[in-house]
Amino acid sequence: MEELRPLHNKRLRMFVCGPTVYDYSHIGHARTYLAYDIIARYLRSRGYNLFYIVNITDIDDKIINRANESGEDPLALADRFTREFFRDMQALGIASVNLYVKASDHVPEIIAQVSALIEKGYAYRVNGDVYYDVTRFPSYGKLSGQKMEQLTVHRVDPDPRKRNPVDFVLWKSQKPGEPAWDSPWGQGRPGWHIEDTAITTTYFGPTYDLHGGGQDLIFPHHEAEIAQAEAATGLKPLVRYWLHAGLLMVTGGRMGKSMGNFITIKEALRRHESEALRLYYAMSHYRSQLEFDESNIAQAEQVLDKLRSVWNQFRAKIQSSLPNGDLSLENEIERITSNAMSSFIQAMDDDFNTPRALAVVVGYAKEIEPFASQNLGEQSVRRILNVFDFFGDVFGILQPAPPRETKAFDEIMKILLEMREDARRRKDWSTADRIRDQLSAIGIGLEDTATGVRWYFASSRVTQGLG
């Protein structure tokens, strides 16, 4: 196991490949970004000063194709789904990202990096297009473990004008109706790979600590990032530690609308509260492939209920008058708690092994629960609560519900739900969905049941009915 050694003392810089915003985010995205959210939370809990960036790919073929289908401006479509992505991240409790960075905001930096690669002989022009010549970078393929002669051209733009089939595009000349920017090679737009390295070298410099993304991005995307940045800056490595999240499978295969197994984050949150989803994903190691399974989410909900029950028992004790502590009880609690903390940290230090760390949390709850009926002193109770708070902050669970016990708030919610129900009766789905999505954006979920619509805070699942 390799030890984490930051470039600059306790300062860490992490970049994670963000979404291409042409559709609603799905449960595969949730798995990826929740994994890195837990990693970021844990690193900060250990005293690291982490700066965490996620990019937003808002210039891409998929966006343009979807915009052509809908008759929408590509940048407007991308902006709309970017806002939906932010709502989903908020609803999932993902608050660890310091900066979300749009590719469209960094076109000058992208052009500068492409220009540098041309000047250094790593890239070549074909009319208004610019390609990277992979034969100029002998270590291309080192991340995926492929040699040059073994490289597949899967997911690489086919173009007979290229010097080598595996060469990838850095800049694309404008086609009719596409968004475009001025460049030394004419009107056009960036290729996908160059967006990320222009962003990371702008904010982090030529070398940084951590880079995350899905395993499906290792080739060609992350290989291309290494080749671009190390060639442009002349320094290596671009990244000291790579973190690749495993794929999420649904009914035995990759998700896709054509497969009928596409589940959006919004749909998942209508059925399950965010903390249960967080716990469900944490039950598997972030590098492992995971089969999405509703029965396992039910198991996560049971675990969450048990943890909340124990946590709340000790929270109730701290609100009452506590006696002086029994020394023998305090010593036993300290022993159990110290062992749990040590085991938890050991698990998370082992490549962020959340399943093992979660087992420690569950074991701690079971072992400490009998003490809730004992005459504990305040010091012992606070020690237990601090440990639960630590575990909860890392996993993003056991978060106190927002205050809601006000008559005005309940009346406002009643009015909004009645407006939504009225819209649904009139089959005004646009208005109904807009009310639901705007409530989701501020952390309030809706659940349509046989007895009517119910609302809940996404972090607590405290439900209220219509009327």
Offer a quick outline of the entry.
The protein has 467 residues and is an alpha/beta fold. Helix content is 47%, strand content 15%.
Give a written overview of the molecule:
By secondary structure, this protein is of the alpha/beta class. The protein has helices at 27-45, 61-70, 74-91, 107-119, 192-204, 218-233, 265-271, 274-282, 294-318, 327-349, 354-368, 378-395, 407-425, 429-441, and strands at 11-16, 49-56, 99-102, 123-126, 129-132, 168-173, 188-190, 208-214, 239-245, 248-249, 290-291, 444-449, 452-457, 463-465. 47% of the residues lie in helices and 15% in strands. The strands form 4 sheets. It has a 5-stranded parallel sheet with strand order 3-2-1-8-9, with helices on both faces. A 4-stranded antiparallel sheet has the order 4-5-6-7. The longest helix has 25 residues, at 294-318.
- How would a textbook summarize the main sheet? 5 strands, parallel
Overall structural class, as computed from helix and strand content, comes to alpha/beta
CATH superfamily of the largest domain: HUPs
Q: For the CA atoms, what is the radius of gyration?
A: 25 Å
Contiguous helical run count: 14
List the helices and strands and how they pair.
Elements: E1 11-16, H1 27-45, E2 49-56, H2 61-70, H3 74-91, E3 99-102, H4 107-119, E4 123-126, E5 129-132, E6 168-173, E7 188-190, H5 192-204, E8 208-214, H6 218-233, E9 239-245, E10 248-249, H7 265-271, H8 274-282, E11 290-291, H9 294-318, H10 327-349, H11 354-368, H12 378-395, H13 407-425, H14 429-441, E12 444-449, E13 452-457, E14 463-465
Parallel strand pairs: 1-2, 1-8, 2-3, 8-9, 10-11
Antiparallel strand pairs: 4-5, 5-6, 6-7, 12-13, 13-14
Helix pairs in contact: 1-12, 2-3, 4-5, 4-6, 5-6, 8-9, 9-11, 9-12, 10-11, 10-12, 13-14
